[in-house]
Amino acid sequence: MKPSRPETTAPADADARRAVAPVICYPPETLPAPDMVRYRAALAEARVADTTLVSPRDAACFRVRAGQMFRIVSVEGPQVGDLNLWNAHDLSERFYSGKTRALHGTHLSTGDRLWSSFPSLRPMATVIADSLDWYGFDSFGGSVHDVIGTRCDPYTGRLLSGGDYHHCCHSNLTRALATETGLPLTEAEAHVHDVLNVFMCTGFSRDTGQYFMKASPVRPGDRLAFMAEIDLLGALSACPGGDCGSAHSNDTATCFPLRVDVLDPAPGSMDGWQPPAPNAYDRSHGAD
Ligand SMILES: [Zn+2]
User: Fold this and answer.
1) Residue 26 pLDDT class (50, 70, 90 cuts)
2) Distance, CA 281 to ligand 1 centroid (Å)?
3) Measured in angstroms, how far is the CA atom of residue 29 from the centroid of ligand 1?
4) What does UniProt give as the signal peptide span (predicted)?
5) For 144-200, what is each residue's pLDDT tens digit?
6) Cα(78) to centroid of ligand 1, in Å?
7) In terms of Cα–Cα distance, which of 166, 156, 186, 184 is closest to 251?
8) DSSP the chain
């Protein structure tokens, strides 16, 4: 945090320096645009091909082929979900939360893409429907579906409270990936990464810049839907924080399940569509 009483005296032109207007780092207009007309048509008459119910304080994996869709649905009560995505054929290509944040902002909604790690750096999924898009940003600066948090984990819990809690999202995702792939737990853990916080309401406090959470506005029936741009292995954890309105990393919050539906697109709607190619940078990095 910034000191409330700085040790350094401000220069004479401090106000002028602060008054410099910001520029957007990555204007999204220059990104390849998703074909939202096609994607909406695919979703309009989509059929449910598979359904996975994620138990509270646990995680489950699901698989989606490129050109299929998936949606995360609130059932029974307000609940936050932590989402990991991998290339189904190569776990080293995984969701890159930080770059997605740099490209689309702190919180995602319809039309935003979930980008993959280097060197592929391509869209893994595109948000195609968001029933919480009405929320916008509240007066605290909070919003839903963030890419600013990481995932609750037992290591940070240990630092802060001294105890061991085994049902943080990090551990839930680790167990689910190990079960799905047959990898040993420690190998699976290395593939777990920073998440998309589905339905979670978060922000940075305006005065101190601290990460905050507040009770999610999600209600049963709310959904966040995605087009799978490549073949995906996904894992979703139903966070032990429940609606994340008070505590996490323990068993005190009321938790609910989450449902993941995999959807086949409307017949013919994805004909001729191709998954995005990996990034074209030649990886020579200026070396001789
Ligand atoms: Zn969590």
Assistant:
1) confident
2) 35
3) 33
4) none
5) 999 999 999 999 999 998 899 999 999 999 999 999 999 999 999 999 999 999 999
6) 14
7) 166
8) ---SS-SSPPPTTHHHHHTSPP--SS-GGGSPPP-HHHHHHHHHT-EEEEEEEEPBT-EEEEEE-TT-EEEEEE-SS---EEEEEEETTEEEEEB-HHHHHHHH-SB--TT-EEEBPTTT--EEEEEEEETTGGG---TTS-EEEESS-----HHHHHHHHSS--S-SHHHHHHHHHHHHH---HHHHHHH----EEEEEEEEE-TTT--EEEE-----TT-EEEEEESS-EEEEEEE-TTTTTSS--SSS-S----EEEEEEEPPTTTTTT--PPPPP-----TT--
- Tokens 């060197």 belong to which residue? 119
pLDDT at 182: 98
Report the separation in Å between the CA atom of 200 and the middle of ligand 1, taken as the mean of its atom positions.
Answer: 10
- Rounded distance, CA 107 to CA 217, Å? 14
CA 57 to ligand 1 centroid distance, Å: 8
- Residue labelled with tokens 């190569």: 90
Q: Which residues have C-beta within 8 Å of that of residue 69, sequence separation ≥ 6?
A: 39, 42, 43, 46, 128, 225, 226, 227, 228, 262, 263, 265
Phi, psi of 212 (to 5 degrees): -125, 160
- Distance of CA 193 from the midpoint of ligand 1 (Å): 12
